[in-house]
Specification:
By secondary structure, the chain is an alpha/beta fold. Helix content is 42%, strand content 14%. The strands form 3 sheets. The protein has a 7-stranded mixed beta sheet, sandwiched between helices. Strands 9-12-11 form a 3-stranded antiparallel beta sheet, with no helix packed on it.
């Protein structure tokens, strides 16, 4: 890997420059955070004792059996043996790219994209070819520009669905066709589906598709977006190709070696109790989306394409609201953070979180409309 040659992740550097989150944080793209106590209480009798009695010895570098089984039971993998646990989804993306690509290779990235998707291939030494897959006004990603032809030397194609920042999703038939195209070209299709099921609880994982069984697909997930557990730094990747999983595990020896045992246990508990957590997240997201839709309808020049899944929306707003300087003023004057669309290469839009308290969103939208 060539970490030193990768460019900065602009969005993460933006977060770092902002400092501590403000009172109302619409910049984050996940569910409202859970506490350790809240999660242990949800897990029921014995969970506290289990947590306190947990050994802090090294664990399995691929992830503990319980956590990998929980990932599979949650529908994010076919079986535990096809899962490698990572330090968040960003490490999963980095390791997937490094496992299949290197100097002289090409990685195609569907854009707009969050910074980690664009920088992970660079860190592997590959050249990045950005291909637009989103059209304003559409709630479906368009994979046609990628399907029309992969550049010579392409070793991986990276796609994000549900899409960050728009909440658009891919059509399953197009995704199958792209997987087949990648397989024929000797490439791997890597799909970041970390926000799957947060707005649409019935949304299936790519791992359930026929394309996944071919081994030409890697699916990436985590517990950050869906459960508000970003501080655990637990993600995973799943593949039906054992050799690829072996390569990822070997590369992980050079990055993080293993995932902290306490984080793995808490992530497993969240996945095992997803039946209680997921409906609450979806209900909050749905209520927030209704609020946002009503608000944008009353803003001259505003336009919202409702997301199909995920916990973000990406409305077009007038410059009096969307300009980065206005968003900075919003943060300073009203204690509200929102992400300028320019950080995704789409100025004039704002990424807004749907995972927080509806009362907070309503207050934030009022401040935006009033110019703070």
């Amino acid at each position: 890997m060539r970490l030193g040659r990768a460019g900065e992740v602009g969005l993460e550097r933006w977060f770092a420059a902002q400092g501590a989150p403000p009172r109302i944080d619409l910049a984050r793209s996940g569910a409202a955070p859970l506490s350790v106590g809240g999660l242990l209480a949800l897990a029921g009798a014995g969970a506290v004792e289990e947590y306190l009695g947990l050994s802090l010895e090294y664990g399995d570098g691929r992830g503990g059996e319980r956590l990998r089984a929980a990932v599979a039971a949650a529908g994010a993998a076919r079986r535990p043996a096809e899962v490698v646990v990572t330090q968040g989804a960003v490490e999963a993306m980095l390791l997937a790219c490094a496992a299949v690509a290197g100097p002289g290779d090409t990685v195609v990235v569907g854009t707009p994209a969050y910074g980690g998707m664009l920088r992970a291939p660079e860190a592997a030494g590959a050249a990045v070819v950005a291909v637009p897959v989103w059209r304003p006004g559409s709630a479906r990603l368009d994979l046609g520009p990628i399907l029309d032809g992969l550049p010579a030397g392409t070793r991986a194609v990276l796609v994000n669905s549900p899409h960050n920042p728009t909440g658009a999703v891919v059509d399953p038939a197009e995704l199958d066709a792209l997987a087949a195209r990648c397989a024929a070209a000797g490439a791997v299709l890597v799909v970041d589906e970390v926000a799957r099921g947060t707005l649409d609880p019935a949304a299936p994982s790519l791992t359930t598709s026929a394309a996944f069984a071919t081994g030409a697909v890697v699916a990436i997930g985590d517990v950050s977006k869906a459960f508000g557990l970003g501080g655990l730094r637990v993600g995973w990747l799943s593949s039906a190709r054992p050799a690829l999983l072996d390569r990822v595990a070997a590369l992980k020896d050079l990055t993080t070696l293993g995932t902290p045992g306490p984080s793995e246990l808490l992530a497993a508990l969240a996945l095992e109790h997803r039946g209680a957590l997921a409906p609450r997240v979806a209900a909050i997201a749905g209520a927030n989306l209704d609020l946002l839709a009503g608000w944008t309808a009353g803003i001259p020049g505003a336009e919202l394409t409702p997301p199909r899944d995920g916990l973000v929306a990406f409305p077009r707003l007038p410059d009096s609201i969307a300009a980065p300087s206005r968003l900075e003023r919003l943060r300073r004057a009203a204690g509200v953070a929102a992400v300028p669309g320019a950080l995704f290469g789409v100025p004039g839009r704002v990424r807004l979180a749907l995972g927080g308290r509806p009362a907070h969103l309503a207050e934030a939208l009022a401040a935006m409309a009033a110019g703070c």
